[in-house]
């Protein structure tokens, strides 16, 4: 994939620290994601990838640092504010609303872009009805977009594993994000499913959504990402295009251990 | 609740019409066959239906286990009682606030709902970070605190009249007619209990409609999302704090309406009516009937309210006839049956007697997994 990034910075963090008691989970992390790129985040287990993810999506409050998105300050903001400003996410261990249908899951994603309040819900005025119809239509088309429209009426928990991953992506897309953060979306998938997922991610990016991706599948990352950052022990040890990162001695050391000589 | 009957439209309308007629003549049939106590019981059952539907919003939809729900019933009851009885007259006379007393029903009811809703938010806000058992314990405490306030706010200034309660509460008066007096329309005599029945029925229907509409709205989906997975709900941009408080407020306001009606119906309120046991009974109605499912909750309310009344009517005559003396107190039997019923339901139908499709699925997750595993094996093998 050609680098479609136009150089405009979408998300920027610097000097991010996050401590859990004595554990320094993130230490002075800085990165910037450009509009339109697929930005990969890799690192050994426990490197702090998911912690960084949780910081970027507002689930964790960082201790120090700067965090701006589209120039808006998002440092220590609540998750709903982060989503509202245009960052949506999926979870490493799928977190769907299991006893809601696939369609309803995506409809929940529209919550942040809709306004109906209790009065609207009770009186069902034309505005609310139109909004509700819009939610329904959008949710249907998103199910279609990720390729699981025919499962719309099924409970989320009854979908196959790959479809659950897709549903999570559809639900995240329902919030109209400019940045979609995917936490190990290919985990547990077979090669065919991984390939389909790769195509889906490329489609999403081509439709103008920037993607931040954590993934263990290095082959997938190398073929998909425009730029990659590597975390180890809560520190960023490398950043660059896949080719650079792959040959970076510090990255090789982090993954394979130091060479004897 | 009638909407999901899968029939042709005319059949559905016919069904609804029959149902409406049954509801309309029910008090007269009951009065003629079982006596007027039963019409009274019917009225009280309506109040419990409203209560259970209110708690259903908090427990059934949003998944917040509230053991102090009866406090909002108390707030509604006391609001109505204080504003419609002579109790506050000496205190308010000459202060320029006399207009507060004897307001029309259409003002008092929304006021009771509003105040109960405000209490819902007040008592809900400290519990926002709590879940499950912890939430239950804290709400239980809040429920008791409200009752203790009612019990002790007779000094230094006598507001609630303490344990003696508030007496001489005026009955509802609508369109210039006092509900304490019978009225004759088309040669049919509508007594006080009948008038209350129709009023409570109308309010219960209103609450049912509001519940249904909330459930299938953006708000209702947000509640269920929080119940299903609070973190994921947050990550979808739901302001969980506000949405939870809204659930507390809506549930409480239903309780407030029911409480106000209770006060006018009884003519007397005291803190004794709002003990913990009442909270537990209402919760049992919701759980037994089917959490989050409106018809189920209504069924639960009717069953749990009417069982003790039936026992009272049946057990004593039966004992007299069979053994000639009264060995068992129906009141005690009620608790025994309650316990057995709850254990039975939890073992056999944990999703409740009449659950929603959703809840049923939830409680039979294992079965689904088994089916899924079997399917997987079939696919691979």
UniProtKB/TrEMBL annotation, chain A:
Species per Swiss-Prot/TrEMBL record: Chitinimonas prasina
GO molecular function, one term: ATP binding
Signal peptide stretch: none
CDD domains tied to this protein: ABC_Mj1267_LivG_branched
Name of the protein in question: ABC transporter ATP-binding protein
Residues in ABC transporter domain copies: 11-258
Keywords assigned: ATP-binding, Cell membrane, Membrane, Nucleotide-binding, Transport
UniProtKB/TrEMBL annotation, chain B:
CDD domains on file: TM_PBP1_LivM_like
Transmembrane intervals: 12-33, 45-64, 71-89, 101-122, 134-150, 195-214, 245-268, 280-306
Keyword field: Cell membrane, Membrane, Transmembrane, Transmembrane helix
Protein name from the UniProt record: Branched-chain amino acid ABC transporter permease
Subcellular location: Cell membrane
Membrane topology: Multi-pass membrane protein
Keyword Transmembrane helix: yes
Naturally occurring in which organism (per UniProt): Chitinimonas prasina
Lineage: Bacteria, Pseudomonadati, Pseudomonadota, Betaproteobacteria, Neisseriales
Alphabetical list of InterPro entries matching this protein: ABC_transp_permease (IPR001851), LivM-like (IPR043428)
Pfam families on file: BPD_transp_2
Highest taxon, organism lineage: Bacteria
């Amino acid at each position: 994939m050609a680098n479609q990034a136009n150089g405009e910075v979408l998300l920027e963090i610097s000097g991010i620290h996050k401590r859990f008691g004595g554990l320094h989970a993130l230490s002075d992390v800085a990165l910037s994601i450009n509009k339109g790129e697929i930005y990969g985040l890799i690192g050994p287990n426990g490197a702090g990838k998911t912690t960084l993810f949780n910081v970027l999506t507002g689930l964790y409050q960082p201790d120090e640092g700067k965090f701006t998105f589209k120039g808006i300050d998002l440092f220590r903001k609540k998750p709903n504010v982060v989503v509202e400003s245009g960052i949506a996410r999926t979870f490493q261990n799928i977190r769907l609303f299991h006893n809601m249908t696939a369609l309803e899951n995506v409809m929940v994603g529209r919550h942040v872009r809709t306004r109906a309040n209790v009065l609207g819900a009770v009186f069902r005025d034309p505005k609310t009805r139109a909004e509700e119809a819009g939610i329904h239509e959008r949710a249907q088309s998103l199910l279609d977009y990720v390729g699981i429209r025919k499962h719309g009426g099924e409970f989320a928990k009854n979908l196959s594993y790959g479809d659950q991953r897709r549903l999570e992506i559809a639900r995240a897309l329902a919030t109209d994000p400019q940045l979609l953060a995917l936490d190990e979306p290919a985990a547990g998938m077979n090669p065919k499913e991984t390939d389909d997922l790769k195509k889906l991610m490329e489609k999403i990016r081509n439709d103008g959504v920037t993607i931040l991706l954590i993934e263990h599948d290095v082959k997938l990352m190398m073929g998909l990402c425009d730029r990659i950052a590597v975390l180890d022990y809560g520190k960023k040890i490398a950043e660059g295009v896949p080719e650079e990162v792959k040959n970076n001695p510090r990255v090789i050391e982090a993954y394979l251990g130091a060479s004897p000589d | 609740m009638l909407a999901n009957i899968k029939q042709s439209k005319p059949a559905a309308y016919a069904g609804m019409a029959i149902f409406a007629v049954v509801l309309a003549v029910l008090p007269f049939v009951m009065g003629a066959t079982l006596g007027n106590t039963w019409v009274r019981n019917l009225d009280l059952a309506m109040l419990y239906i409203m209560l259970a539907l209110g708690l259903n919003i908090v427990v059934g939809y949003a998944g917040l286990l509230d053991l102090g729900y009866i406090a909002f019933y108390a707030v509604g009851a006391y609001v109505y009682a204080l504003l419609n009885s002579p109790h506050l007259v000496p205190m308010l006379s000459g202060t320029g606030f006399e207009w507060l007393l004897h307001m029309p029903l259409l003002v008092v009811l929304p006021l009771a709902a509003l105040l109960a809703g405000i209490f819902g938010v007040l008592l809900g806000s400290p519990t926002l970070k709590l879940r499950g058992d912890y939430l239950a314990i804290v709400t239980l405490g809040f429920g008791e605190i409200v009752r203790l306030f009612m019990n002790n706010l007779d000094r230094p200034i006598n507001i609630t009249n303490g344990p003696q309660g508030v007496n001489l509460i005026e009955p509802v008066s609508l369109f210039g007619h006092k509900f304490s007096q019978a009225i004759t329309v088309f040669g049919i005599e509508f007594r006080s209990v009948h008038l209350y029945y129709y009023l409570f029925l109308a309010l219960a229907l209103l609450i049912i409609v509001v519940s249904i509409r909330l459930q299938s709205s953006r708000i209702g989906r947000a509640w269920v999302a929080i119940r299903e997975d609070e973190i994921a709900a947050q990550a979808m941009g739901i302001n969980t704090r506000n949405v939870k408080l809204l659930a507390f407020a809506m549930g409480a306001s239903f309780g407030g309406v029911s409480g106000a009606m209770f006060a006018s119906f009884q003519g007397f309120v005291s803190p004794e009516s709002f003990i913990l046991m009442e909270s537990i009974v209402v919760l049992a109605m919701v759980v037994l009937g089917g959490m989050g499912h409106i018809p189920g909750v209504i069924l639960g309310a009717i069953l749990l309210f009417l069982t003790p009344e039936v026992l009272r009517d049946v057990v004593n005559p039966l004992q007299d006839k069979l053994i000639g003396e009264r060995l068992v107190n129906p009141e005690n039997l009620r608790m025994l049956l309650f316990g057995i019923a709850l254990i039975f339901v939890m073992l056999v139908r944990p999703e409740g007697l009449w659950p929603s499709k959703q809840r049923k699925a939830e409680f039979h997750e294992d079965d689904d997994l088994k089916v899924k595993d079997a399917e997987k094996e079939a696919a691979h093998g």
